[in-house]
Amino acid sequence: MPDNSLLPSKDSDPAFLVQAGYRYALSLTHHHYDAEDLVQQAWMKCQHRYGGVKNRTLLYTTIRHLFYDQCRRGKIVVFESIDGHPEPQADHSQHTHASADLDVLLAGLRTEEREAIFLNAVEGYTAREIAEQTGSPRNTILSHLHRARHKLARALGCEPGRMDADFPNEEK
Amino acid sequence: MNDLDQKIRDYYQSQSLSDDSVARILETGQLVRPPFWRQPALLAFAASIVLVIGISLLWLRPGPAIEVAVAGDVWKNHQKQLAPEITTSSFAEIQSALPRLEFPIAPTQREMLAGMEIVGGRYCSILGELAAQISLVDAAGESGTLYVAPLTEALSEIIPGVYRLENGTVQIWTDAHRVFALAR
């Protein structure tokens, strides 16, 4: 299970879980209202099926399933960036805040890349844990992380970070 | 921790739902009823309903038909071959010797007993009713037993006929408010 040592353990606080679920949904949709709808639907589904939201992992899994289910049914349209085309660029003349820059840059990432970088950088999941959570091979997750870091770092003009620093919990 | 990770973390930490939205989601969630198998009270209620229905079905299940019960009772008694209390070849003498019988024991249709002779008689009971047990024997020396009981309400729905049991038969008929059963 993920060692979310970087975050306080507040899974027993429903409001905290809702906010955490919203951020995870945002990493998938990169759209405020879609993310809000997703976390609400996931919360209700957990209540109905499990009698409550027991922990963050259950909520994230439910959100993820709902997201891909809705993508399949066309309720959420994912705009994929085309790899090989110009990578996301921060327009420093228009966006004075780093947050706004990052918002645009994250929007240019593929869904899988954005999800992986969120789970790794924000939640502290290792590549192996992300692989378990998403059901993808660990090497695929590493590729997503590598690509996402390089796209963002190049656009922001900062270092993408060393791999061993990227995965503090990963077995060496 | 590198600069990029910190920026990503700061970005997502700055994204949050309003307090109203969080409250609405939590309230909506509380309105959702979990499935009944996750509600102990409903589960117990459903189980008790099933139990009551099961017991009712068991209770209301029709028992064996009355004639089958009589034939079985008669055959069981016949198998015991109990000695008669009075040895005689006359219905009238058996009737006299068994004064507790408040009904005539002689059948009006004697053809049912054609070829058989009376050996004697004794008291017995059929499904709790006091009855006469009359021992018979045919020309070949084979024994038979005739049972006579009043046609009470409990026996009123009996269906006359010949019922085969194990190695013999029980013939049941009614005659003048009495039930006759001949086992042989």
- Oligomeric status of the shown chains? heterodimer
Helical run tally of chain B: 5
Instruction: Give a count of the beta strands of chain B, DSSP E runs of length 2 or more.
Output: 7
Question: Shape of chain A from CA axes?
Answer: globular
Structural class determined from secondary elements of chain A? mainly alpha
The major sheet of chain A is characterized as: none
What does this structure look like?
The complex is a heterodimer of chains A (172) and B (184). Chain A has 172 residues and is an all-alpha fold. Chain A is built from 8 helices and no strands. Chain A has helices at residues 14-29, 32-50, 56-72, 98-107, 111-122, 127-134, 138-156, 163-166. In chain A, helix 1 (14-29) runs parallel beside helix 3 and helix 5 (111-122) crosses helix 7 (138-156). Chain A is globular and about 45 Å long. Residues 1-8, 91-96 and 168-172 of chain A have low confidence and may be disordered. With 184 residues, chain B is α+β, with helices and mostly antiparallel strands. Chain B is built from 5 helices and 7 strands. Chain B has a 7-stranded antiparallel sheet with strand order 1-2-3-4-7-6-5, with helices on both faces. The mean pLDDT of chain B is 85. Chain A binds chain B through residues 6, 14-15, 18-19, 22-23, 26-27, 36, 39-40, 43-44, 46-51, 53, 98-99, 102-103, 106, 117-118, 121-122, 149, 152-153, 156, 158-162, 165-166, and chain B through 1-5, 7-17, 21-22, 24-26, 28-30, 32-35, 38.
